Automatic annotation (TrEMBL):
Record's compositionally biased regions (Polar residues): 10-30
Name of the protein described by the UniProt record: Plastid lipid-associated protein/fibrillin conserved domain-containing protein
Organism: Artemisia annua
Chain segments carrying region Disordered: 1-30
InterPro entries on file: PAP, PAP/fibrillin_dom
Length: 253
């Protein structure tokens, strides 16, 4: 709270005489026009500073997105692990992006979250015995990870694509449906509903270890949306995982 300055009264004996001594030039009061020009210059300087800051943030965000994509080249979204120095580099860039989040309260306007997104990085990994059990070392490879968010229905559908090499090459997908509800201005609670694998041939391949597969991608819990704009979304879940997704142009994944 601003405090008022109290000026002590000046004794009458110390008041200067009303006449102005010779050789002393009186200072003209500042004109109203001068004050207006000063205020205009100040406002202009503030606006320029604000504009420069916004432009700088935009350039930083654009560069960070490019750097993340470049660093992820050949890393298969990190799903099978990656060198620790690259992991650290990516996650440092993620932190900077989060600090520049243009939509800090994303659940207030859920339309920004709706539509189809493609996973480009995650700290979820399939390593060692899990990878062997799922046959991901041999003839089954991972395709895109897509997420379709239906804001009106409060539903999210995750699709993990698989390609199977063999005499008859075919592809399929694991489909996980979940519902979500808002729990804060930046967080949603997620509840697993159902899951399936199509086609049946692929389900037969995974049936024995289906619980392992579902355990890796089960979305139950909460998700904090730490960054979202027109093309990129970052989230952190209750299990300590990070997810970076780009908006996808897929219309019928």
């Amino acid at each position: 709270m601003a405090s008022k300055l109290l000026h002590p009264q000046i004794p009458t004996s110390h008041v200067l005489p009303s006449s102005t001594p010779k050789n002393v030039k009186t200072q003209k009061p500042l004109s109203t026009n001068h004050n207006i020009h000063t205020n205009l210059r100040s406002n202009f300087a503030i606006k320029v500073a604000e504009h420069s800051s916004t432009s700088e943030d935009h350039l930083t965000i654009t560069q960070l997105k490019t750097d993340i994509n470049n660093t992820l080249q050949g890393m298969n979204r990190g799903i099978f692990g990656m060198p620790s120095e690259k992991k650290t580099e990516i996650e440092e860039m993620v932190k900077v992006l989060e600090s520049l989040n243009p939509n800090p309260y994303p659940t207030i306007d859920l339309d920004k979250l709706g539509g189809c997104w493609k996973l480009i990085y995650s700290t979820i990994t399939i390593l060692g015995s899990k990878r062997t059990k799922l046959g991901l070392r041999d003839f089954i490879t991972l395709g895109d990870f897509l997420q379709v968010i239906d804001v009106a229905k409060g539903k999210a559908v995750n699709m993990i694509m698989f390609n199977v090499r063999g005499l008859n090459l075919f592809s399929g997908k694991l489909i996980i449906e979940a519902s979500f509800k808002i729990s804060s201005k930046s967080r949603v609670d997620i509840r697993y509903n159902t899951s399936t694998i199509v086609p049946d041939q692929l389900m037969n391949m995974f049936r024995k270890n289906y619980d392992v597969l579902l355990g890796i991608f089960n979305p139950d819990g909460w998700l904090e949306i730490t960054y979202v704009d027109e093309t990129l979304r970052i989230g952190r879940d209750d299990k300590g995982n990070i997810f970076v997704l780009e908006r996808s142009k897929e219309t019928n994944p």
